[in-house]
Q: What sequence folds into this?
């Protein structure tokens, strides 16, 4: 810690919520609506981000809750961020580094669930209507750099929801047609376990799917646009959407094929996770990838059909489960902030 950070006063009325992902860090606090954004690639560790943030504020919060993507040590709260090269962050060590500030870590999806389900300012867009059970389990899924999820289970005694962390994005995938079976074999040539994250997430999954489909349905124009987007570090999903909606000829058709397969497989994964948690209270989708593609996938692919697909022994109640898109891109930081205020 820098000398300047050590000398900063602690404000007993100030609380901060931090969303820590593999690509970026987002911070909100109780004194303003300013969203502070940091790229993980530009900082060596979480402490360096904290130093910069505290210096900008000119003070330190009384409590900081960090919603972090990665396995959490339940005894110490330490987390090593998935999809980033940072060392492990320990809240116990941070409290020694920043005396007077309390640090707490939660799974990143717990922060996301807290934001999506408890913050009144967070807006939802209904992708699929339904009749949710008011005290039924709700499941929040995020497709961004990775594929994360958490559940919110109703506690009858406390009369509130309890957030349950999960690594459900690492479940395996089950192909349901020949094209999906080909994609699975393609991934199995590289990965011993093909998870939903590997197959469908914004960092690996969508790029794997593009590369695979373009070997089957080759198109020069679409491939060139994808390469340009990758070189410019622009989301490739936006390229697919542009071609699918406004393209022509083969490039449009191939973009639609890729998005159809993505939507269908995502719908199956959503269904599996809903069944695992008996999510009669609804499914909430968030994350940069579904923020960009969610409405298209819902309207123009078999995502929602596969979610309540015929043949499932539970499709009689899945038909009543609504699906929502959480439109606030800062929902995890808002959730972490709400937890810090508790």
A:
């Amino acid at each position: 810690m820098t000398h300047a950070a050590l000398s900063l006063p602690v404000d007993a009325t100030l609380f901060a919520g931090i969303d820590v992902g593999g690509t970026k860090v987002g911070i909100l606090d109780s004194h303003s609506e300013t969203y502070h954004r940091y790229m993980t690639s530009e900082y060596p560790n979480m402490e360096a981000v904290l130093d910069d943030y505290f210096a900008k504020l000119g003070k330190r919060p009384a409590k900081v809750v960090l919603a972090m993507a990665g396995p959490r040590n339940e005894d110490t709260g330490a987390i090593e961020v998935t999809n980033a090269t940072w060392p492990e962050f320990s809240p116990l060590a941070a409290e020694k580094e920043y005396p007077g500030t309390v640090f707490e870590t939660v799974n990143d999806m717990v922060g996301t669930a807290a934001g999506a389900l408890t913050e009144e300012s967070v807006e939802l867009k209904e992708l699929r209507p339904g009749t949710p059970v008011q005290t039924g389990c709700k499941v929040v899924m995020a497709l961004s750099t990775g594929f994360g999820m958490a559940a919110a289970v109703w506690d009858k005694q406390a009369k509130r929801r309890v957030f349950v962390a999960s690594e459900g994005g690492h479940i395996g995938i089950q192909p349901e047609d020949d094209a999906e079976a080909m994609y699975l074999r393609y991934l199995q040539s590289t990965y011993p376990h093909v998870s939903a994250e590997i197959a469908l997430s914004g960092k690996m999954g969508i790029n794997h799917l593009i590369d695979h489909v373009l070997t089957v349905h080759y198109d020069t124009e679409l491939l060139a646009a994808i390469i340009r987007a990758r070189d410019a570090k622009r989301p490739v999903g936006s390229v697919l959407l542009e071609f699918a909606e406004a393209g022509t000829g083969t490039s449009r058709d191939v973009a639609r094929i890729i998005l159809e397969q993505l939507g269908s497989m995502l719908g199956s994964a959503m269904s599996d996770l809903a069944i695992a948690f008996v999510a009669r209270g609804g499914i909430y989708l968030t994350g940069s990838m579904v923020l960009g593609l969610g409405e298209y996938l819902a309207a123009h692919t078999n995502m929602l059909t596969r979610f309540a697909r015929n043949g499932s022994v539970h499709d009689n109640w899945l038909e009543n489960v609504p699906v929502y898109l959480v439109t606030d891109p800062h929902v995890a930081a808002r959730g972490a902030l709400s937890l810090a205020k508790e």
